[in-house]
Here is the input.
Amino acid sequence: MVIYQNISLKPYNTFGIDVKADQFVEVKTIEEVQVLCTTFILAERKNLILGGGSNILLTKDFDGMVIKMNLKGLDIIKEDENHAWVKAMSGEVWHDFVMYCVNKNLSGVENLTLIPGCVGAAPMQNIGAYGVEIKETFEELFAVEMESGKLVKFTNAECKFGYRESIFKHEAKGKYIIVAVTFKLSKKPNYNLSYGALKETLANQGIVEPSLKAISDAVIAIRVAKLPDPRELGNSGSFFKNPEISLAEFNTLKEKFPEIKGFPLPDNKIKVPAGWLIEQCGWKGKKVGNTGAHKNQALVIVNYGNATGEEIWNMALTIQKSVHEKFGIKIEPEVNVI
Ligand code: EPU
Here is the structure.
């Protein structure tokens, strides 16, 4: 394990922001993570745990230690007639894990094909797409407690998953380093084709009883058509979360904006697509300096070249302000702004 000084983080974040870290270390084993905690007393240093760097916006140089998680391994650790439990180490690329499951005909994460990032980051914000969230297949995770260096287990309930939420964004924030995640996948077809775009794509292909591979391919087609590839255009996926408002607020807005879209939630709330709100404010495809909202999906803010993190953050704040002025809704960032 080598600790490097003064390293550019440009290759380690999908926005492609060129800031420097005072210290940078790559870890490949649980033991290395534990050594960082006990010998280097990580809990007392400013630190940043990085997976794929696909959900952060770095706005300035990082005057602390960056830990790049590179623990690898994918294994079926248990099986019964109906299920298989796959343990994935945190540094595995999320999409590679999904492909491992699809190729083994294990169902449950196929709708989450091509989501950028690493396995270890997935539980932090309960990643989701096309009607599926990881909380549905998540069994447990192992994390190293920063202060003690001990390996601890979190069950599904202990993670307190919500929409793009978990305990790791709240009371457990900054206290644990996730090293491995186990998912319970189904051996029998257990598909979720409820999401409009997914249903339509499969129907257009004339597929009635899709295979896991067909679903995964359809998700790839939808994502590629709408979402920019970070290797070509720096971005962090959805920049904001979709806001949840009360039914009463939604009905009032609907009188003024009859076209407004909303998806009912169980507790009499409505989830409004932030992409639609941003588009209505005129931001879709608009370029300001080196940044702007993407032409195919207004919820994605992109780096057109050499944008600084600060420039992107200012763009995000401007978009947030205009949505608030027009609709009275405050959209909150989904990415971690550092
Ligand atoms: N919409 C617009 N204009 C836009 C974008 C979207 O009107 O520019 C409307 C669409 O017409 C659609 C609705 O908004 O009716 C929803 O759009 P979409 O299906 O693209 O999904 P989303 O709500 O914008 C969420 C996730 C994505 C995930 C998709 C598909 C969040 C914050 N984002 O986006 O996740 O891929 O659903 O399930 O929940 C991510 O988290 O980084 C991410 C990409």
Observations:
- Helices lie at 30-38, 94-103, 196-204, 212-226, 247-256, 274-280, 309-327.
- The radius of gyration is 20 Å.
